[in-house]
Amino acid sequence: MYTRILKTVSLLMVSMVLSVNALAAGADRPKDETGPVETGPVKAAKESNAFDDFLDDETLLGGKFTTWVEFASDYVFRGESETNDGKIPSLKAAITWSHPSGFYLGYYGANNLFPGNDAAHNNPHINALWGPYAGYSVKDIAGSGINYNGMFFQYIYPGSRDSNYLEMFNYLDTQIGNLNLKFEYSPTITDWFGVKGLQSHNVAILPSYALPHKFVVSGGVGYQFFNNHGPNLDANGNGKEELNWVHWNIGVSRKMFGYNVDLRYHDTNIKEGHHDFYGFSSNHQIVDSRYVFSLSRSF
Questions:
Q1: Could you tell me where the DSSP H helices lie in 78-118?
Q2: Are residues 95 and 161 in the same domain?
Q3: Cα–Cα nearest to 112, from 67, 157, 165, 163
Q4: The pTM is what?
Q5: Within this chain, do residues 30 and 91 fall inside the same structural domain, yes or no?
C-alpha cells in the first residue's frame, strides 16, 4: 500500500516539474508567436529572403526606375551641334525614378565636343555633359486636357566647372485628335555658361502629328534670347550685341524592333559674321543646317 502511495506522489511531482518548465519556456516566447522560436540558420534564411525581396522589388519608396539611351549621328541642342559639327557620334543616357504623385528625380549624361583652339580645333576641356534633374508632371489640369511638366536640370561640364549652370524647363501640352501641341519656356536660374550677369531664355512651339502605320512627324520652332546685365559681349566689334537666334527642326520617327528611329533636319538663322557667339569661321559650322539620325530606347 505504501509503495502505491509513493509511486503516485512521485508521478505527481514529475508532472508538476514538467508543467513549470513548460510555463517558463512559454514566458520567454513573444505572446503573438505560437510556433517554436526561430534561431540560427532558419532565422538567417528568412532574413536573407527578405533582403532578396527588397532588391527584387520593382519599386523604391513607391516609385519606379526607367532608363533611356540614345545613339545618334550628332547631338543638336536648340540648333547647335554639341559634337563640333558631328565630328563624333553622340551617346546619351538617363536614369529616372518616378513617383505616382508626379514627382521624379534622375541623372543624365552625354558626350560632347565644342570648338576650340587645340590642334584639331576642339575645346580640350569640354568633352562631356552630365548632371542631376528633378521635376514634377501633372496630367489633365482641372479637367482642361492640358498637361504640365517642369524640371530643374544642373548642367555639369567636368572639364570646365566654371561653365556649369542651372536651367528650368517648363512644358505645357494638349492632345487634339492626332495632333499634340507642346509649348516650352525655359529660363536659366544661374548665369548661362557661367558668364556673369547673362540670363538665357528659350521659348518654343513643338507640335507632333500621328500618321498612319504608327509614324509620327514632329518638329519645333524656338527663339533663344538673352538678358545681359554683365560684361559687354560685342565679340565681332560691330557696335551691338548679337546674341539671340531662331532655331527649328522637323523630322519623322517610328518605333521599330523595340527602338525609336528618328530622322531629323535642324537649322538656325545665324549668319557667319553676324553673331557674337557663333558667327565666326572657327565655330559657325556648329549652327549650320544638318540632318541627324538617331536610335533610342527606354526600359
A1: none
A2: yes
A3: 157
A4: 0.84
A5: no
